Amino acid sequence: MNRTLLVLALGIGVGAVGVTLAQHQGNDGESVRVIATQPIDEKLDGKEAAATIVEVTIKPGESGLSHRHPGPGFVYVLEGEYELGINDQPTKLFRAGETFYEPTGCLHRVSKNPSTKGKTRLIAVVLHPRDAKEIAIPESNVNKHR
Predict the structure, then answer these.
(1) Is the pLDDT of residue 136 over 90?
(2) In a domain, 144, yes or no
(3) Is 59 inside a domain boundary?
(4) Percentage of the residues of the chain whose pLDDT score is greater than 70
(5) Rounded distance between C-alpha atoms, residue 110 and residue 63, angstroms
(6) Can you give the pTM of this predicted structure?
(7) Is residue 100 part of a domain?
(8) Host domain of residue 72
(9) Residue 2 falls in which region: left (phi positive, over 0), alpha (psi -120 to 50) or beta
(10) pLDDT at position 144, please?
(11) I need a surface site. Which of 8, 18, 44, 66 has the fewest CB within 10 A?
């Protein structure tokens, strides 16, 4: 089922290629570019839902801030290496060509490019309620892990 949702969400993204809705460069080491947001017919926890596709770029040795997502996330590592830590689970290393899943609401406590040489690029598809104001909600009470 997760694979079906990922294929569905990526299909929506392919259909909307070239549509850039926003760009974000925060106070952390991540640069996030929204590629597309598309309403979907399926509901998420009984609510009208949408899929947002983003490209995340992280410079060598940099990290993002701790955050949560209002729906499940499906991520493909386009380039480089990516260190992920969710909830209290041990961190995992992903390389270009690999994918991972983040459950709704989990604490994304580590988001890091462990390389000292090249950038990391990810494509993430986040399913979320249509009325969500943010797809990455900062976790202000959690220390940033590097």
Answers:
(1) yes
(2) no
(3) yes
(4) 77
(5) 7
(6) 0.78
(7) yes
(8) 2-138
(9) alpha
(10) 42
(11) 18
- The CATH number of residue 59's host domain is 2.60.120.10
CA 26, 30, 32: angle at the middle one, nearest 5? 80
Q: pLDDT per residue over 77-86, tens digit each?
A: 999 999 999 9
Confidence band, pLDDT 50/70/90 cuts, at residue 140? confident
Total domains present in the chain? 1
Condensed to tens digits (0 to 9), the pLDDT of residues 58-68 reads: 999 999 999 99
Average pLDDT for 29-57? 96
d(CA 90, CA 129): 29
Residue 6 has phi, psi (to 5 degrees) of -65, -45
145, part of any domain: no
Residue labelled with tokens 């993430």: 124
> What secondary structure, in 3-state letters, does the chain show?
CHHHHHHHHHHHHHHCCCCCCEEEECCCCEEEEEEEEEEEEEEECCEEEEEEEEEEEECCCCECCCEECCCCEEEEEEECEEEEEECCCCCEEEECCCEEEECCCCCEEEEECCCCCCCEEEEEEEEEECCCCCCCEECCCCCCCC
| pLDDT given for residue 130 in this prediction | 96
